[in-house]
């Protein structure tokens, strides 16, 4: 083996003769030395010369991923028009005139009119608010409930783990659409909350299983065992050492599932058990336009196209986040 020289804090010839950048970095970490950033510093180091974390590496990869940039811009646009739809749509989505029913495009109404004489463009813009609201709130609820239950079951194990596993098996056996037809058919509210509650009720088991497996893997690492040996409490180990290193798979699955939840809301609204008029929803508009698809295809084209683009954007975002957070794909 070539003779090793003492580490002098540089990346030049005095670092480690014959060793790679990774070896120099490991030796510095073993000796408690902080790497200083140099123009020719080793790959994988941050602004202070320290090794980058998983999150900084992921953000670095995401910024260079065109799929992430494109999907992120689409989602940003959807969020903006969901909060302020009047920025690009100045009319009222409930302002309808039967004399204009099924008419095509005209000046000021680029998407034409639906079967009730409502402006399709305005309803398509305002429909984004419903879809984004349902998708985001459902994802937050599912992630919180499933992440907490799955994380606790994976950390403590034993009877709690066994009980959670059997409960998730029961929920996985319930068909989502059939469950929605049964659960939401007795609800008369036209708001988004019953739909969000149903999605959270049937969506948390998937996140719970992901969180459980991730926590079980993380708690077996040496740093967790060392913290336990030093007398760290369960709450400290869970919040300080395990959760930050086990949350990445949950984020990936939740991001991809967000697009699925938007599609599920549209499906339930199409079947008449989700959102109900006078609520504005892409699913409601698609359902109303299906009987006029031959005479007025524009009524179906625009809300269905907006739904497809939205779901695709969130799925693309989830794929990009998965590629960035999965070390096996590096």
Keywords:
mainly alpha, 2 domains, 11 helices, disordered N terminus, MetI-like fold, 330 residues, elongated
CATH class of the largest domain: Mainly Alpha
Q: In angstroms, what separates the terminal alpha carbons?
A: 30 Å
What's the rounded overall pLDDT mean? 82
β-strand percent reads under 5%
The overall strand count is 0
Shape: elongated
Order of helices and strands: HHHHHHHHHHH
Radius of gyration: 26 Å
Region (Disordered): 1-52
Membrane topology: Multi-pass membrane protein
InterPro entries: BP-dependent_transpt_permease, MetI-like, MetI-like_sf, OppC_N
Subcellular location: Cell membrane
Can you describe what's shown?
The protein is mainly α. The protein has 11 helices and no strands. The protein has helices at residues 21-30, 54-63, 66-83, 120-156, 158-172, 176-184, 193-218, 222-229, 234-270, 282-289, 298-325. The model is unreliable at 1-41 (pLDDT under 50).
Gist of the model:
With 330 residues, this protein is mainly α. It contains eleven helices and no strands.
Write the layout of secondary structure elements.
Blueprint (H helix, E strand, L loop, with lengths): L20 H10 L23 H10 L2 H18 L36 H37 L1 H15 L3 H9 L8 H26 L3 H8 L4 H37 L11 H8 L8 H28 L5
Helix pairs in contact: 2-11, 3-4, 3-11, 4-5, 4-7, 4-9, 4-11, 5-7, 6-7, 7-9, 8-9, 9-10, 9-11, 10-11
């Amino acid at each position: 083996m070539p003779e090793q020289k003492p580490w002098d804090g540089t990346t030049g010839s005095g670092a480690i003769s014959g060793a790679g950048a990774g070896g120099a970095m490991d030796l510095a970490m073993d000796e408690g030395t902080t790497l200083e950033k140099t123009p020719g510093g080793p790959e994988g180091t941050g602004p202070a010369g320290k090794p980058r974390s998983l999150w900084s590496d992921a953000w670095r990869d995401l910024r260079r991923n065109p799929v992430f940039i494109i999907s992120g811009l689409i989602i940003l646009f959807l969020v903006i028009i969901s909060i302020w739809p009047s920025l690009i749509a100045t009319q009222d989505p409930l302002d309808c005139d039967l004399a204009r029913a099924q008419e095509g495009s005209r000046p000021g109404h680029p998407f034409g009119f639906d079967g009730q004489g409502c402006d399709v463009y305005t309803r398509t813009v305002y429909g984004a608010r419903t879809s984004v609201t349902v998708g985001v709130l459902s994802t937050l609820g599912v992630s919180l409930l499933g992440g907490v239950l799955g994380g606790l079951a994976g950390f403590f194990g034993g009877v709690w783990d066994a009980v959670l596993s059997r409960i998730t098996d029961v929920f996985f056996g319930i068909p989502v659409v059939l469950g929605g037809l049964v659960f939401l058919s007795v609800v008369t509210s036209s708001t988004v909350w019953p739909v969000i509650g149903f999605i959270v009720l049937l969506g948390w088991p998937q996140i719970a299983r992901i969180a459980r497996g991730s926590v079980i893997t993380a708690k077996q690492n040496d740093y967790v065992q060392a913290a336990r040996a030093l007398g760290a409490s369960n709450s400290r180990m869970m919040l300080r050492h395990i959760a930050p290193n086990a949350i990445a798979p949950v984020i990936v699955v939740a991001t991809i599932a967000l697009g699925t939840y938007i599609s599920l809301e549209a499906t339930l609204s199409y079947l008449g058990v989700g959102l109900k008029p006078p609520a504005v929803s892409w699913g409601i508009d698609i359902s109303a336009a299906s009987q006029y698809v031959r005479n007025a295809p524009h009524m179906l084209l625009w809300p269905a196209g907006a739904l497809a683009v939205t779901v695709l954007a969130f799925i693309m975002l989830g794929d990009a986040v998965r590629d960035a957070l999965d070390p096996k794909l590096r």
